[in-house]
Every structure is written in structure tokens, then in C-alpha cells.
Automatic annotation (TrEMBL):
Protein name (Swiss-Prot/TrEMBL): Corrinoid adenosyltransferase
Main EC class the enzyme belongs to: transferase
Catalyzed reactions per annotation: 2 cob(II)alamin + reduced [electron-transfer flavoprotein] + 2 ATP = 2 adenosylcob(III)alamin + 2 triphosphate + oxidized [electron-transfer flavoprotein] + 3 H(+); 2 cob(II)yrinate a,c diamide + reduced [electron-transfer flavoprotein] + 2 ATP = 2 adenosylcob(III)yrinate a,c-diamide + 2 triphosphate + oxidized [electron-transfer flavoprotein] + 3 H(+)
Coiled coil: none
Biological pathway: Cofactor biosynthesis; adenosylcobalamin biosynthesis; adenosylcobalamin from cob(II)yrinate a,c-diamide: step 2/7
Assembly, per entry: Homotrimer.
UniProt key word Aminoacyl-tRNA synthetase: no
Cobalamin adenosyltransferase-like domain segment(s): 3-166
Alphabetized SUPFAM superfamilies for the sequence: Cobalamin adenosyltransferase-like
Organism whose genome encodes this protein: Salipaludibacillus aurantiacus
Gene Ontology molecular-function annotations: ATP binding; corrinoid adenosyltransferase activity
Amino acid sequence: MKIYTKKGDQGMTQLIGKNVKKTHARVEAYGTVDELNSFVGLTSVLLQEEKHEDLVMDLTKIQHELFDLGGDLANVTDKHKWTLSNKAVEFLEAKIDHYWDEAPPIRTFILPGGGKASANLHVCRTVARRAERLVVNIQEASDELPPAAIKYLNRLSDYFFAAARAVNARNGTEDVLYERGKDVFK
């Protein structure tokens, strides 16, 4: 089997049930989810090197959920077969609370950074936010989405923020506070 099909040579691709341009909103959204999945994979490797096995297990689960979400975003015909559910959102909420409690309290914004794994978690956070915006655009165009899609991406970016702070705390690395910030976390 060859990996190339030549079907996309004219700028078209196949959603599940529909042929569309590669610039279609759903293609942009699932492409960004795929990009996020790649950054999550890189971050998982860095967390493994730093011996944060619990986070590595989380990220493996998240990678599967992102793959599910990408498939759901590509599915425009059989919406009863969407895979992502609110259970994934509930998992993230529990993990956010857990990791948030590991890090010291903050009152101001922080700059992305710290160690390599923490900095990469912040990259994941920003790509998740972009994916969320793209999915919201699909919803605003009155196109049906998996009910959990936006909520999942919203919680996922919060998860990455909490996890990045927890990794810094575990590694004894202080978060870098935004110097001109005012108290926003109370």
C-alpha cells in the first residue's frame, strides 16, 4: 500500500461523507487538533525523561481523546457515532483540581516557561485554545458538533496550564510572574 493517494493534489480532501477544500473549517479544526496531538506527544516524551509518569499516562489518554475528537470533527454524516463524551471533560476537571493543588497559589499572570516539559505544556495550552476557537467558528456557522467538543478543548487548555505549574513545582522551578500584572487570581 502506498501512503500517497494523489487525491489531494487539487486542494481537496475527504471528510466522512463529504468532499471539501482543504481550507474548509472542519479541516482547519481537525488539523489543529492533530497538531496539538503532536505537541502532546513531544511533551509526553519530555515528561517521561523527567519521571512524571502520572502526567505521561494522562497525556496518552488525552492523545486518544484528541484522535477521537479529530474523527468527530471530520464526521459530517453519521453524528450518532461521535466518540468524545462528557466523561473526558470530567476526567480533565478532576486532573485540573489535582494539579492546581500541587502548585503554590498565584495572584498574577505567569509567563510560559520553567523547565522544558512545563514550557511545552504551555505550547499545548495555546494550541488547544486555537483549536477551541476554530471549533467555535464551526458552531457559529450552525454546523453540528459533538456536544462535548468545545467544553473538552476549553478544559484541556486549563489542564495544560495546571499541569505546567505542577511540573514546575515538582521540579523546584518557580513560575515567572508577569511583572506588570495585577491580581487576577483571587
